[in-house]
Design brief:
Structural class of chain A: alpha/beta
CATH architecture of the largest domain in chain A: 3-Layer(aba) Sandwich
Oligomer: homodimer
Strand content of chain A: 5-15%
C-alpha cells in the first residue's frame, strides 16, 4: 500500500476519531512480514507451533462437522455462542477447578475480541485500567481504543508485585480503577508466573477496593516445569476469565471465551451484538468436534514436549552466549523469555541491526503504554516457533548484536561517562 | 440468565462506560429465541435460507481446504486478511464493474465488523453520521457504541430522498458529517432500491460537501425482478464498499470485506488489530475454495429462484389479506418488505398479540436511532426464511392482528376522536 517514492495524500486526514491518533500498530505484527524472509529466524512472533497437528484428523473433523451439524454450522447463531460450545468450555474449565455452567460463558473471536469487548463495556476516556508492566501488547491495543489511563504495576519472577499494587489502589481509592488486567501464567511478555501468595493478595486487594479482576489465561495448559497453580477464577468467582483454543489447538479458528458474572456477561453480549452479530458457527462446531472426538490431550502432550525442548534450548543458549550484563526470566511454561539489558541500551535502535543479522525480537517498550519510557532496555524473545537448533543460532546472532552495542558503552562506563545500571 | 422471581443485583452497575447506557439489544435477535418455537412463523429474522446448500459439496470443500492449505489454514494470519481471499474478492467485485486490486481490500468478520471498525475509526462522541430512515439496525448498533448524532434521511420507493439530503448537508456544511451510510440495493429494512438518478445525486452531494459515502451491499446479487443498477463504488472510487458472503454462500463463515481508499484502509487495519488480531484463516480458506472450486453461480441461481417465489407469495398475500389502511414496499430483490400502518397504530404494542397468534415481525422503531419517534407505525417483514405457504399463513395471522387493532380505531376515527393518517 505504500508505493515507494510516492507521497500518499489522505483527504480524510482531518476526519478520524481522536482515539485513532494515539494508536500504534504492533511492532510484532509488522515484523511478521519481515519474519517471512527465509533467512531470518523469528524470536518475535507469538505464533504457536502447529506444524505437527494431525491435518488428516483435523480435515476429517471439519468434514464431519459440516455433515453432522448441517445448516446450523453455516447459519447465523446466537451472539453469545453455541450452547454446545459453551458446554465444551464448561468441561475444559473443570480441568482447572473452575466450576461453571454454560450460562456463565460467552464465546468470542479469540480472546482478543473479549479484550475489545471489555474495553468497550467498561472504559470511559480517562478511566484508570491497571495492568502488569510489561503487559500483553494486544491488550494495550484493545484497551487504548477507549482512551483509558493505563497504570502499570511492575512484576518480578513471582508475577505482579502486589505490594506495589496495594499502594496504587490506596492512592486510587475504592472503585478507582475499572479493572485489573493480569496474565498470571507464563505472562506475555515476561514469561513469569504469579505465585500463590500473590494471587491471594491480588484477590484480597480487589475485593477490598471493589475492583474487577480480568484473568487472561492463554498459556495455562502449557507448563513444562514445576506444579500448576490455581487460577484466579477458581479462587474467586467474581473474576472475569479469558480462555482460548489458540495455543492448545489452533489460532486459525479464532475461538476464545469469556467467563463473567451474569450481569457483566449480559452487557458484554449486548456490546458484542453491534460488533459482529455473532461469531462463526462453523468454527465453533469444529472446535466442539476436535475436543469431543479426538484425543486432544495426546496432541497437546506432544506439543508440550516440543515446547519444553525449545524452552530448555533457549535458556541454555542464553546462559552460554549472552553477555554478563544481560538478565532474563526463566519461564516454567508459555512462549516467552524477557531479557533486560543495562539502562543505557535502547533495544528499538538494535532492531535494524538484528534484522540485518537475521534475527527478530520484540522491543520492550511496545509492551508498555504509549508515552511510557519503560521497557526501552528490554526485549521479548519467543521460543515457541523455532526448532531448538535455530533458537541456538538466533540467540548467538542476537548476542553478537548486543555485544557490539555494549562494547562501546563499556568504554564509556569505565571512563565514568555512562552510569552502569 | 434471568431467573424469574429472582432480582439479580449487579455490583458493577456503576462501573459501565457511558456508551453502554444508551445501547439496546436488537428486537430481532431477541426474537430469534421466540422464533425457535415450532408453532411460530418468523417474519422477523433476516436469516438467509441455506437449507438447500449442497452439504456434501461444502463438506468436501472444507476437508480439502484443510489438506490443501495445511497449517496456514489453522495459524494466525494477516490482520487485513489472506492475499488469496482478497484476490477472490477482486474477482467477485469485477462482476459488479468494481475495478480494484487486493491492496484495496480488508477481509472482516462479516460486514458487521466493518461497520464497527468504521465507527471506531471515524466517530467521536457527538459527530454527525447520516443514514437512511429507516436503516439497518445492526448499523445503528455498531455506530451508536461511539455515540454519534445519527441524522436520518427519509426514503421512498426510489431510495434515500436526496433532495432532503441536500438540504441537510447544506445545513451541516462541508465535512459536517463523518459519513453517509446507505444500503442502496433492496434496503434493509425498507426493501427499496436507490434509483440511478438518486445514486448520481448522492455522489455529487458527497463530493461537493466532502463527505465519505459508505455503501453496504449484502443483497446486491439477490435480484428477482428488474435490471441491476451500478453500485455507488463503480461510479466513484472514493466510496467505501462493504460486501459479505453471508447471503450468497453462508453467514456461518462470518466473511465480509471492506473496500476503501488506501489511507482509510490503513486506519481500519490498525484499528482491526486491537479488535481481533486477525480473522479466521480457516473460514477464509473455505470461502476461497467454495467460490473457486464449486459452481457457486448455479447454487446462487437456485437460491434466487426460491426467494423470487417467496417474494411473490408475500406480495400476493399482502394484496389479498392486508387491510386497506396498510401500505407496503415492493422490493425487486433482497429479503424485506416494509409495511406502514396509520399513524395511530403502534407496532411494538402489537408484537405480543402477534406472538400469541404465532407470527413475528420487526417493529419499525428499532430501525431508527434511539430516541426517535419515527417508525412506530411501521414493521419489517422478511420473506427470505419461510416457505411460500407459510408466508401466506403468516400474513393472514398478521392481518388478523392488525385488523383487530384497527377495528376500534376506525370507530374513533369515524367519531372524529382520532385523525386518520
Amino acid at each position: 500500500m505504500n508505493v515507494p517514492g510516492l507521497v500518499q495524500l489522505d483527504e480524510w486526514q482531518s476526519n478520524y476519531a481522536h482515539r485513532v491518533e494515539t494508536m500504534r500498530t504492533s511492532a510484532v505484527r509488522d515484523l511478521f512480514a519481515a519474519a517471512s524472509r527465509t533467512d531470518i529466524i523469528s524470536l518475535s512472533g507469538g505464533m504457536p507451533n502447529i506444524n505437527r497437528l494431525p491435518l488428516d484428523q483435523v480435515s476429517q473433523v471439519v468434514a464431519r462437522a459440516v455433515l453432522d451439524e448441517g445448516v446450523a454450522a453455516l447459519q447465523y447463531g446466537d451472539t453469545s455462542g453455541r450452547e454446545q460450545t459453551k458446554q465444551l468450555v464448561v468441561k475444559l474449565m473443570s480441568d482447572l477447578s473452575i466450576a461453571i455452567t454454560p450460562a456463565d460463558v460467552t464465546i468470542t473471536t479469540g480472546a482478543q475480541q473479549a479484550l475489545d469487548l471489555l474495553g468497550k463495556t467498561f472504559i470511559n476516556k480517562g478511566d484508570v485500567v491497571i495492568t502488569e508492566g510489561p503487559t500483553y501488547l494486544g491488550a494495550l491495543q484493545a484497551f487504548s481504543a477507549y482512551q483509558p489511563q493505563i497504570v502499570t504495576i511492575p512484576l518480578d519472577e513471582e508475577g505482579m508485585r502486589t505490594e506495589l499494587l496495594a499502594a496504587e489502589l490506596e492512592r486510587l481509592g475504592s472503585r478507582g480503577a475499572k479493572f485489573i488486567y493480569t496474565v498470571p501464567n507464563f505472562q506475555n511478555p515476561a514469561g513469569v508466573t504469579m505465585s500463590l501468595r500473590r494471587r491471594k493478595h491480588l484477590l484480597e486487594l480487589a475485593r477490598h477496593y471493589e475492583i474487577l479482576v480480568v484473568e487472561d489465561d492463554p498459556y495455562g495448559r502449557l507448563r513444562y516445569r514445576g506444579e500448576p497453580l490455581p487460577s484466579l477464577r477458581s479462587l474467586d468467582d467474581h473474576v472475569v476469565y479469558l480462555g482460548t483454543v489458540s495455543k492448545v489447538f489452533a489460532p486459525g479458528l479464532r475461538t476464545g471465551w469469556v467467563i463473567a458474572p451474569h450481569p457483566v456477561l449480559a452487557r458484554l453480549n449486548m456490546v458484542k451484538q453491534g460488533t459482529d452479530l455473532c461469531g462463526s458457527a462453523l468454527n465453533q462446531v469444529i472446535v466442539e468436534h476436535y475436543f469431543n472426538d479426538i484425543d486432544w490431550r495426546a496432541n497437546l502432550n506432544l506439543l508440550i514436549e516440543q515446547y519444553r525442548l525449545r524452552r530448555d534450548a533457549m535458556l541454555a543458549a542464553l546462559d552460554e552466549l549472552f553477555p554478563p550484563e544481560a538478565r532474563w526470566t526463566h519461564p516454567e511454561g508459555g512462549f516467552f523469555v524477557w531479557v533486560t539489558l543495562p539502562d543505557y541500551v535502547d533495544t528499538t535502535q538494535m532492531l535494524p541491526l538484528a534484522l540485518e543479522r537475521g534475527v527478530t525480537f520484540v522491543p520492550g517498550d511496545g509492551c508498555y503504554p504509549a508515552g511510557s519510557s519503560l521497557g526501552k532496555n528490554a526485549m521479548r524473545i519467543a521460543f515457541c516457533y523455532e526448532e531448538p537448533e535455530n533458537l541456538r543460532e538466533a540467540i548467538g546472532r542476537l548476542a553478537a548484536v548486543i555485544e557490539k552495542r555494549l562494547e562501546l558503552c563499556r568504554i564509556f562506563v569505565s571512563a565514568g561517562l555512562l552510569k552502569a545500571s
